[in-house]
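Notes for week 9. Today we move from apo structures to complexes. The key idea is that a small molecule is not decoration. When we ask for a structure prediction with flavin-adenine dinucleotide present, the ligand SMILES becomes part of the input, just like the chain. The input block below holds both the sequence and the ligand string. Read it once before you look at the output, and try to guess where the molecule might sit.
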Amino acid sequence: MKTSARAVVIGGGVVGASTLYHLARIGWSDVLLLEKSELTSGSTWHAAGGMHTFNGEANISRLQKYTIDLYREIEALSGQSCGLHPNGGLMLAATPGELDSLKLICSRARYLGMETEMISLEEARNLNPLIDTSHFIGALWRADGGHCDPSGTTHAYVKAARQLGVSVERFTRVLSLGQRRDGTWDVVTDKGTVHAEHVVNCAGLWAREVGHMVGIELPVLAMEHHYLLTEDLPELLGRDKEIVNTTDYAGEIYLRQERGGVLIGTYEPHGIVWSPVKTPDDFSMQLLPEDFERLAPYFEVGFRHFPALGRVGIRKAVNGPFTFAPDGNPLVGPVRGVRNFWVACAVMAGFSQGGGIGLVLSRWMAQNDPGQDIISMDVARFGAFATPKYTSMKVPENYSRRFRLAYPNEELPAARPVRRSPIYDRLKAAGAVMGANFGLENALWFAPQGVAPAETPTYRRSEAFPVVRAECQAVRRTVGLYETTNYGKYEVTGRGARAWLDRVFASRIPKPGRFALAPMLNPAGRIMGDLSIACLTEDRFLIVGSGFAEEFHMRWFLASEPPADVSVRSAASTLNGVSIAGPRSRELMQHLVRDDLSPSAFRLFQVRETAVGFAPAILTRAGFTGELGYEIWTTPDYFASLYDDLWNAGRELGLVHFGGRALSSLRLEKAYGSFNKDFRPDYTPGETGLDRFIDFSKLDFTGRAAALAERAAGPKRRFAVMEVAEADADVVGYESIMKDGAAVGYVTSGAYGHCVGKSLAAGYVPATLAREGARLEIDILGEMRAATVRLEPLYDPQGLRLRS
Ligand SMILES: Cc1cc2nc3c(=O)[nH]c(=O)nc-3n(C[C@H](O)[C@H](O)[C@H](O)COP(=O)(O)OP(=O)(O)OC[C@H]3O[C@@H](n4cnc5c(N)ncnc54)[C@H](O)[C@@H]3O)c2cc1C
C-alpha cells in the first residue's frame, strides 16, 4: 500500500468511487481510495439503481442530469457496463395539489434543458400498462432517468479512475485520523499509516463514525428501506420495451421493471431508524430482516394502484439501510475548523447524485471553488443546532415525506421548536405562525383574532394571503415590527479588523458611525454574500447577513485567514434584533431614544450605540422594506424588555407585527434581492446589480480582477423584477422564464406585491432583454403568463420614503 497520497478517499461506495474518478479527471492522480471490505459493500450494492433528474432545487437537478449523462462516458472509458436502462420516468398525481406540483416540474424543466411533458392518463398507461388509471388525475413523463446496475456503475467509476493513475486498496479499514501541525493527515489503517494532504469522508453508512475520528458530529442517520421483487407478470410478456419507471405520490410507491417482473418500493410513514447510535463495524453486504407485517398496508396501496402486482407472488424482498441528512439532501464540502477534511455523505440518491457530487467536490478540492452554487447540499447549511437529537427527529420525518410533495408554504413540524428568541412566546400570543430558519423559530405571518394560525399547504394563494396584505399595507401606512433575530450576525473586532474587512469585502468599509451594504466575492468574482457592515468604533464592526448562511459565512470568513489581531465571532445567539419600519417609525423610536432622530441628525445608513428604552442597543437607520426604518440590536437579556417598550410606545401609533411573508412582498416591490434566493455564488456583481456597492478604487480585495473584467465586458444577464399577469397563483421559484418559446432564465423568487397590486417574479434575464417593458412569459402551474420587465422598483422608485 502507498504510504503517502495527496488525498485519501475513505469509502468505496458509489459516492467514493465517483469522487475518486473526478479527482483523477481533474488531474489529481496521487489519490488513494481505502475500502474496509469489498467495493459497494455499504448501502450501494443492494440499491434499486433508480435514477432521475428531479429535485426541488435547480442546481441539484442539473447535477443529477450530469450524473445520468456521465454513465456513457465512464462506460466508454472503463469498458465496464453500468447496466443502463434509460427508460425515463412517469410521475402520477392523484390530487389537485400533486397535479400542480407536476406542472411546476414541467415549467422548471424547460430552463434546465430536460425533456418533460404533462401527458394524459391514457398515454401514461401506454408507457406503463400496470397502472389502474382510476386512482389518478394526471401524469408527467420525463425522458431522463431510468435505472442502472449499482455494482456495475461503481466499478465503472473505479476502473475509469484507475486508468487515470489513482490507487484503490480494498479490505483496508481506516481506524483513526490524526492531524499534523501543518494540516496534513496521518490516516491510520489496519494495514499501516498513509500520510495525506486531504481526507474525504465518503463512508456512507459509517460517515458518522468517520466524522467522530476528527471530533465532529455530522447530521446523518440511516433508515431501513424495503423493496420487493415480484415474479414474472403475464402483462409484461412479449413487450418490446420495458415499462417506464413510475412514481406514485399518493401511494408513496415507486416501481420499475426487473426482468419479467417488477421492483416495487415504498417510503412508509413510520420508518425505522437503523443503528441510531453506532453503525456496527462488521456490517458489510448484509440485508436486514424483512418486516412484511409493518409494511403490508403500504404495499397494499401499491397492489391497488397497480393491480397486476397483486396477482403474482413475491420473488424476493430487500430491506437495506441507507443514510439521510435532516432535509434529505447530501452533505458535501469542507468542514469549518477542520483543515483539509472534506465530506461527501448522507447521499440518499447515489445513482442520481453521485456524479454531480464528485464533480463539485473535486473542483472544490483542486481549485478551491465548487464552480457553482451548491448551498442546498453544502454541509454548512447545518450548524450547531443539528444535534443528534435534532437529526434523529428530522431524518425519519424526511424519510416519511420522500414521496410527498413539498408545498412552498409548508412548515414541517418535527424537532420544533429548537431555537427560540426571548420574545417567542409574545409573538406566538400575537398569533405568529412560525417557520424555522437555521433551527430558529421566526414569524411568517400573524393570524388576527378569528383567523386560525395555520395554513393549508398549496402551490396557490392560501388563507394567509389577505392577512399578509393587511400586514404590508400597515407597514406602508403606519409602522410595523419585524423580528430580525433570524439574520446572521458577526462581530469583527481588533486592530487589524478594518484592513482585513477591506480585503474580504468588495465594498468600501464604512467609517465609525456609518453602515454600508457590502458584497463579498469569491476569487472568481461570484457573490458569496450581500451583507451589511456597521462600524461601531474604528476597531469594532457588526456584520449582518442571511441567517441561513451563518455557518457558510463563518467558514468563508475563517478561510479568509483573519490575522492574529482580528477576532471574528458569530453573534447568532448573543444578539437579538428587531426592525421598525414605516412612516411613523421615527415618531415611535423618538419615544424611546434620547438622541435626536430627526432626519438631519440621524440619517440613512447611520449607526449608533445608544439606549432604546431599557435596552443598551445598537441602532441603525436601515431596513429591507423601502420605508423609513430602524434596526435595533441588543443582547438576549434585554430583548423582551425592548420588545415591550416598543410595543407600548407603538400601540397608539398603530404599530403592527409583520412576518417574513410580508417582508418578501415589500422587498420585491422595491426590487431588493435576497441572498440564497436571488443572490448566490452562481451570479456576479454586474448580473446582480451589486456592482454599485463595489469600491473599484480599492487595490486589493477578493474577486477584484474578475469583477473588473466583468465591468469591462459587461454582464451577460441581469437580475430583474417582472410584473406577471394576474391569476390565482404567484411564482414559487425556478419556473422557466420564456421568450418566443425558448427558456431564457428562471425565477429566483416571487411574491404578490400587495401595495402595488401586482404579482411579482424576480430572476435573471439575458442582458438584451433587461429593458423596461420587455415582454416575456412565465409558465405558472401550466398557464403561460405574460411577464413584463420593470427596471425601476414598482414602489417609490426614487427612494424618497426610505430617505424621509
Ligand atoms: C434498499 C435500498 C434501495 C435504494 N435504491 C436506490 C435507488 O433506486 N437509487 C438511488 O440513487 N439510490 C438508492 N439507494 C440509496 C443508495 O444506496 C445510496 O445513495 C448510496 O449507496 C450511497 O453510497 P455511499 O457511497 O455514500 O455509501 P455506502 O454505499 O454506504 O459506501 C460507504 C463505503 O465506505 C466504506 N467504509 C466505511 N467506513 C470505512 C472505514 N473506516 N474504512 C474504510 N472503508 C470504510 C464502507 O465499507 C462502504 O463500502 C437505495 C438504498 C437502499 C438501502
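The chain has 19 helices and 38 strands.
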